[in-house]
Amino acid sequence: DNPEIKEEVLRKDDRFLTLLKDVYVESRDPPVRVKDGGGEHLPCKQEEKRLTKLGHLEALDVKKVPKGKISIVEALTLLNNHKLQPQIWTAEKIAAEYSLELKEVNSLLEFFIPFTVQEFPKETKKAIKSHKPKQLT
Q1: Model's pTM, two decimal places?
Q2: Cα–Cα dist 14/16, whole Å
Q3: SS (H, E, C) the chain
Q4: How far, rounded to the nearest angstrom, does the alpha carbon of residue 59 sit from its chain's CA centroid?
Q5: Alpha carbon of residue 61 to chain centroid
Q6: What family is this (predicted)?
Q7: What angle do CA 83, 89, 91 make, to 5 degrees?
Q8: Phi and psi of 121, rounded to 5°?
Q9: Cβ neighbours around 82 below 10 Å, total
Q10: pLDDT tens for residues 12-61?
Q11: Is there a domain that residue 106 lies in?
């Protein structure tokens, strides 16, 4: 709004202009570094997914898993099925049902065994209750 300030801003100062002509700026970019695992942001191949086979436990687990993999609930289910009915739930049937490789299913059935829940008879519980704890001296 002030005309004096406006005039001062628009006026060229010859002394500053000559000093500015003497300034030389040299700029260099820093060397480019390649990060290890630089391809982590590249688009990856789309994995084929399949719907999980959970039945009544559907709310407890994920809905889709990549082919060749199983969810925790599916693993427990197939291990239990194989334990209860090994002649029906063979390694070949499990591999076909869950889109897994046969050697991986064989390893799974060999090295992972589901827990067995056992209930003790009532007389055993009674015997445990009547046991008096020892006093430490």
Answers
A1: 0.46
A2: 6
A3: CCHHHHHHHHCCCHHHHHHHHCCCCCCCCCCCCCCCCHHHHCCCCCCCEEECCCHHHHHHCCCEEECCCCCHHHHHHHHHHHHHCCCCCCHHHHHHHHCCCHHHHHHHHHHCCCCCCCCCCHHHHHHHHHCCCCCCC
A4: 19
A5: 14
A6: Belongs to the NDUFAF4 family.
A7: 100
A8: -60, 155
A9: 22
A10: 888 888 888 888 888 888 887 766 655 555 555 556 666 566 555 555 55
A11: yes
- Domain assignment of residue 84, yes or no: yes
Kindly report the CA angle at 28 between 22 and 34, in degrees rounded to 5?
175
With 0-12 CB in 10 A as exposed, 13-18 as middle and 19+ as buried, what is 130?
A: exposed
Contacts of 75 (CB under 8 A, 6+ apart): 108, 112
Q: How far is CA 40 from the centre of its chain?
A: 15
Reported as half-sphere exposure (CB side, CA atoms, 13 A), residue 81 has a value of: 15
Domain boundaries, position 93: 71-114
Is residue 96 in some structural domain?
yes
